[in-house]
Each structure stands twice: as structure tokens, then as C-alpha cells.
Amino acid sequence: MSPLNSNSKTSFVVALTQHRVLGNIFIPIFINTIAEKIYTIAENLHGKKPESFDLTSTEQEILKLCNEYSEKVLASKFAKTQNTKEFIEKMEVVKFEEHIRPYIELRMAKVANLLAANQDIKLYFKDKKYNNVYEDNRIAVEPHVATPIFNFALSVDGLKYHIDAEVGQKSISLTSQHVEAIANIPALIMVNSTLYRFEGIDSKKLTPFFTKPFITIGTATVRKYMESFVLNTIKSQVVKASGFDIVEPKVTAKPVLTFEKGLDGRATLSLKFSYENRDFYSGSKTEPLVTFRADQKRFVFTKYERDTKTEERIEKKLCSIGLIHHTGATYIIPKNEEFEPEHSMYRTVEWLNENAQVLSNLGIQVGQKIDGPQLHIGSCQSMLMAQSDPSGFIVKGGIRFGNDFVSLHQIRKCVIKGQKLVDLDSGRQAIIPQHWFKEHRQLLVFGRETDGTLHLQKQHFSLVEGLEGIDPSEIESLKQYSESNLVQSANTVKGVNATLRDYQKLGVAWLKYLHMNSFGGCLADDMGLGKTLQTISLLQYCKDSFTYEREASVKPTVPLDLFSAAEANNTEPTTTSHPVSLIVLPTSLVHNWRNELRKFAPSIKIHEHTGASRAKSPSTFAPYDVIITTYGTVRNDIDMMSKFKFFYLILDESQTIKNPDSATYKACMQVKTMYRLSLSGTPIENGLTDLWAQMNFLNKGLLGNLSLFKEQYVIPIEKYNHQGRQEKLKNLIEPFILRRTKEKVASELPEVTELEIFCEMTDKQRDLYEEEKRLARERMLAELKEGNNKRSRFVFLQLLTKLRQLANHPSLAGFEGYNESGKFEEITRNIESVINEGHKVLVFSSFVQHLNLVAAYLDDSGIQYNILTGGTTNRQQVVEEFKKKEEVKVFLISLKAGGVGLNLTEADYVFIIDPWWNPAAENQAISRSHRIGQANRVFAYRFITTDSIEERIMDLQRQKSELADIFVNSNNPLSKISEDILLQLF
């Protein structure tokens, strides 16, 4: 804090004083009033820290500037010594005049500027000998900068000149009794107690006129003086001439923007202004051009002033249209420093081309200064036209660069290869506009080129939208796949014995949309939302609405014998026929599809092309509406099946063909069909290649060939997370995939949706089961014959359990060499589908060993799970982990250990993998998920092995009879069932 007396009036002022060595300097001081117009210095602040005093920001800045030339600072800066006294006493004159004094004067000029702008801070002259300051020594600081005026008068007697000064309209005479130079560069002159600031001139040019009114140059040296001193003065100062002329013609500034390569390899745009005789870089402080000539014995100076208004207007305009002022005369495009050098060059030229007309209107000439072939810089016109044809669209065009035209063929080659440059006939090179890569890359990549035109499939309608020549209404008719557009056509199909929910009606409307446009599509609803029912509705609609010409492609390949006559009579020539559709699915789903078709569309005639005794001729298919077969059968029978042309080819669980190199994929691609459809809750399991395989099956060529797809999408998206490519791919496939999650349609679903999944046994499993069933029946008959009722029912329970275990998995019944199980394949497939869709699932079984088999599969697949059985000791920990850990999607629970007492609302799917006769226990298991706190709809699946003891029990339960009541409500149904019924179960 300041040590001043608080009772006296204290002020911060600046004093001009004479330092014994440094000369004139400003120092900041505190003064106290001791009498009228008399002040005493309370404290000299020079060299002291600004933060030690209560000062305004301006006062602090003045103190900081003055401190920069304190003796201590000067000694440290110019002598690298702490001995201040020795530095001052031994200061070299030359060093002082050339370095130290200019350093001081620069800071004094800044202090003078602050005083001029802040008139409330006073300046006084202080005699170095005294400690008082007087009001009579007050120095006024002129707020405006003074302009020196050079007055030259040429006559026969020689050249006379003097210098005056002006501040606004006020004239200042330097020839005065009271004039003093306070600083040299820039000039600070005190005239009659007023301090004037000059710019662009040093005081040494002014001091001669402090003592004499003018300087005379003799006639012998006038011309030389005119050509040097006068000419240079005209360049930088205001000159008034007499006896010779100064001409200042108005010259138009012609802006030139030059494309160059910077030191870092990135593009820059250099702006200069061209006048008649000289070029000036933008922002430069170069003096005007002045020429001298003797015209009829009269000297004439011509001064070419820069058109600063025009220059500033052009500089501002360039920034307003997108350029960024970089340094000096250089400009760059936005984000230029983020680009790689080559990319920077391309983007800058593209900016110049896009703004060519604007630059031309501003009168800006564009040039280039680069090595190698010159680039086209100027107008660039895209010329792209399209038209419809029966198979899709034809695209023609190219790009016109000035007078050069580049064909679509040339551009396509460059875009596919990622090359930006294309050669022009003129010998220059042109940069293909970025929007061709961004907007038309897919069109060029997926188009098939023929004779300079591109042919695109109808499915590529989104790629030609907006092109000249395309009727917008045609594109709009192809865009009716959105939910809002489908609502109007959503209705129930006649002949289907089911009440479709609204989202299912929309699904059927979407399938009809695909059909009417001959598009293939993937119905990708979540598991349990009724993909099968929606597909059956489409098949029923097609059966009732369409006939088509079938090719005569089913003739036998060998001569028929007598035993083949019936088959020969079934062979169809080319004829109008009803639709015959092929459904390909995993073996485990054959039974479900058969039941669903019979249940919901009984008028559809079904043929199962499965098993060892399946038909060998395609003519077998003709009488039916739907052929059900498996992926394995298609692989094995493709030679025969490819001879029949189907109406629809439908793949269920279509992720089966995710590997385009697999025999299954190749076989499905060989099947002849008019329409294609796929069903999958998880169309992408491992990566985008899965998507390509399915899309290529549905709409061949939609995504190009596989290598091109990997280059254009897989690598940019999976490796670099390229958002633009993601969006492009999404838009391209959007019309052909319909996916509704359970959450999206939750309002239409019941609180619990219970479904039965029927699972086919494998061939080996079936043979084993049938043999064990035969032995069990024989054993049971023998036990009944002996008449020991209690024993026979105990034996029956053992036999029943063994058959039940065989129906699930042979290894559960002790048959370790048998590793195949149709139900196990279906269980694991559905678990993967559920977790791939982002859901959690509870898996219940009455056999701990069965859960262990599932656990082993999950371990091998890298799927995280928890397991709860009677042997679990950390029960609460296991439950909490499943509830809290997002990555744990599967909870394996034994019915006995987890059927009650658990709240697991985190799961919204429940799998009961070996249902039995007590639905109450199963309902308790379902209630682990479906209870208070569950925000989602719950799906409960019962997995039942067809043609097994499980199916017999389910059939009995469905019968409205005393038997059903016994099984449903009795804890020990075996004690109440007759011997005839027991034998029927086998």
C-alpha cells in the first residue's frame, strides 16, 4: 500500500525530467498539494511494482512502461549485470545512442499515447534538482497526432524549404522561443508547454527549423536534391510544392488472388493489388510509388497512391465469402490446417471453382504458382441426366471444366479409385468436385457401365433422386416404404385365421410394397413379434391374387420308365400357374412353420421337401403352394431344385447365409425365383459382410460386388467409423429392411406373450429315441403284466424321465457318444438372437445337467452368463451380478432353485427349455421376470421336441378333459392315470 498521509490530497501524475545519463524520461509519481499550485513529491514510483499501489488500469500500464527503462532493468537487459551503478557510469556512447536510447523512446512514445487518450492523468515538468512540482510547469498533451508539412519553393535562386506542423485545422510553428525535442523516434516535440506526437518522422528532421525559418539548396545541386530528398519526402510526407508539380493520378487497383503451395505443403491464396507500374501485397505498408521527370524545364513528380478503400473492400469481401485471413497477404479456406497437404490443395481449388463467378464479379483475377501441370481454376459445371427404363435407370453426363468436357466414363474411373485429378484435353488437369465423391459415389460405384452410360437397378432409386430427367412422382411412388405411407394400405389379409396387430398389418403392407415393386426385403423384427405370421399373410395374398408363367424347366434329365409315368404326368410345360413358393429354414423350424401354416392359412397346400425319402424331381413341387425345406437340403439338392422356377424364395433365420463364401449362400443364390424375402432378427451378427450377403441375396448388385463393398463401406465404417459412409449405406438399404423392436410396438403387445417352439430331432437322435421308446414300451408291458402297480409306476417314471432327457439331449440320458440335439441347436440359436437384439433372458430347466450343457456352449461362444442351481452358495451375489451388469445377458436357473423368491425384471425373455406337466411351476418361473417393476413386455418361450413324450404331454394338456385337469392340477399325476393312457404316452 502507498505510505502517503491519508489527510492530504494525493494524486498520480507523470513527470518529465532529465536523467543525468539517460536524458529526457517520463517517471510516475505521487504528489501531495502543499500550497495553491504547489505540490510535493510524496513518492517516486519509478522501478516499483504496480500491484503494490491502488492504481487504475491505465496508471498501472504507465508504471509498467516506465519500469522497463529503470536503471536496474536497463543494466540487466543491455549489460547482463546486477551492478547498476557501474553500468550507468561506464555506458558507451555509441551503444547508448544506437540501442538504449531508441529502446527508451519507444516506451516513452507509448506513455505519451496513454496520456493523450487519458487527459485526467496530468503531465508536469520536474527539475531534477528539486522535490517540488508547480502548476506553472504543467505540460498539456495534444490528444491528436501532429502531421509535419514540408513546404518546398523552387525558384531561379534555388530551392527553399521549411517544415510546419498541423493538428486538425490548427497550424503549429516550430520556429519558436520555447520548442524542444523530447524524443527522437518517434518524434515528441514540446512547443510552448504543449507536447505533440509525430508519426513517421524523427525529430532530427525538425530540429533545424527550431532556430531558422528555412533551408536553401543552391541551384547547382537542386536537381540531385529533387531526385533524392524531395522524391523520398513526397513518398512518405505531406508536401506543399511551389515552382514544380506533384501529380497524383487516380489509378484503379486490380486484385490478383494467386493459388500457391505454402512451406508446409498446404495450399494458400496470396492476395496482391496490381497498379499500372507496381504490385503491392495485401496488408503491406509499402510507400507509394513516386516518379520524377523534367518536363519543358519544369520538374514533375507523379505520386501513385494505393486505393486503400478498394483494397480494404476486397479484403473484407474475401472473408465474407468464406476465406480466412492467415498471415500478411495470405488467405486460406476454413479448416485448411486440419487437412493433409494434398487434400488442402484439392479443397482450395474446389473453393476457387465454386466461387469463380463471385470472384469474377469482384474483378479478382485468379492465378496459380505451382510446380507441375497447371490446374483448371474457373467455372465447373456438372452435367448429369437420368431416365427410367424397364429394368431400372440409365444415367448419362459428365463435367464441363471451362471449354473442356470430361465424360462420365473418365469420372467414374477416378471416383472409384479415389483419384481427385483428371486430365483435360487442353493439357491441364482438373480436380473433380468433392460433391461428386460425396453425393454421386454410390451411383458411380454401383452403376453398370455400357457404352458410356450407367445402368442402375430399380432398387437404386434413391441414388437417382433429384437428377435431371427423373420424374419426381416416379421416385415418390418407390418411396412408399415409410410407416406413415404404409398406414393407408395396412389391412388384414382375407383367408388368414388371425387377428393381426397394427404393426403386423404395417409389416404385411410393407411386404406388399416390396412385391409390387419386385424388390427383395428383410423382415427383421425382434424375436416374438410375428415374422412368420406376417410372411404367411403375404403368401396367402399372393395365392389369392397372382398367377404367372412358369418355364418348362422340370423335364426329367433321363428317359422315363414305367415306374416314372406318374411323375412324368406331373411335369409342367410352360403354362399359366399358381404361385409356388419355397421357404428355406433351419431343420428345427420345419415343424413350427408347418403348424403355423396349417393354423393360420389352412387353404395353402404345403409340401415338406425334407428327409431321406424326399422327391428327386422338381415336378413334385408344382401342385403345391408352399414348399418347406432346410438349408442343408438346398445345398444337397441344388442341381435339381435350380430347375424349378419358384414364385417366392423365403429364407428364415437368414443370417445362415451370412458367409458369402459358404456352400449354403451359393446354393441359395442359384435357386430360380421371381421374388425374394428374408426373415432375421439379427441380420448383422459379426460385421457388415453379413449385411452384404443378405442384401445381395435379396437384390443382387444393390451393394456392388463384395470387394467393392469392403473398400467403400466395410473398411471406412468398421475401421475408421466414417459417419458419412454409414449414413449413405443406411439410406441405400433403408427401403429393404423393416425392423421393429419389442420396445417400439410394446403398446400393442399383451403383458406376457407365450409362445411354443417345436424342435425337430436330428436323424441320429430320432433313431436313438425311437429305439429307447420301443424298449420302454416293452418294459412297461412286462411290469404291468406282473401286476405290481406301485412298482410299475415307479418304473414308468424312470422310463418317462429317460425319454424326456433323450428328447432334450442324448447326453442327459447317458449317451455320451451322441452330441447332436435338434432342441439344443434351437435353444442356443434363440439365446444368441435375443442377446444380439440387446435383451436379457432367463433360461429355466428342471435338469441341472441341461443347464450345464448350455453353460458350456456359452463359455465356448464367449457369452457372459450367471447360473443358479441348488448347489449355488453365493445366491444373492449371483442374482445381483445379473441385475447390475449390463454385459451379463443370460441367467441359467433350475426350476427348483429359482422358481420362486426372485425378482429379475431386468430380463424380458424367459426360456423354459424342458417343459413338463405342471404349468404352475412354469408360471412361477415366468413371474420371475413378469412382476411389479417390469417396464417391458415379456416373451415366454417353451421349447418342445416334436414326436416326443413332451409333445404327447402338451397334447394331453390341451384336451379339455379330466386327464388335462389331472396333469395340470395334480402333484403326482402318475398315480391317477390309467394303464391305457400310460401306454399311449409311449
What do these coordinates show?
The protein is of the alpha/beta class and 986 residues long. The protein folds into six domains: 10-141, no CATH class; 147-243, no CATH class; 254-286 and 307-369, no CATH class; 380-470, no CATH class; 483-557 and 572-681 and 712-746, Rossmann fold (3-Layer(aba) Sandwich), CATH 3.40.50; 753-984, Rossmann fold, CATH 3.40.50. Helix content is 36%, strand content 25%. Strands 5-3-2-1-4-6-12-11-10 form a nine-stranded mixed sheet. Strands 35-36-34-37-38-31-39 form a seven-stranded parallel sheet, sandwiched between helices. Strands 16, 17, 18, 21, 22 and 23 form a six-stranded mixed sheet that branches. It starts with 9 loop residues before the first strand and ends with a helix. Residues 1-7, 552-574 and 960-964 have low confidence and may be disordered. GO terms for molecular function: ATP binding; helicase activity; hydrolase activity. It holds the Pfam family SNF2-rel_dom. It comes from Acetobacteroides hydrogenigenes.
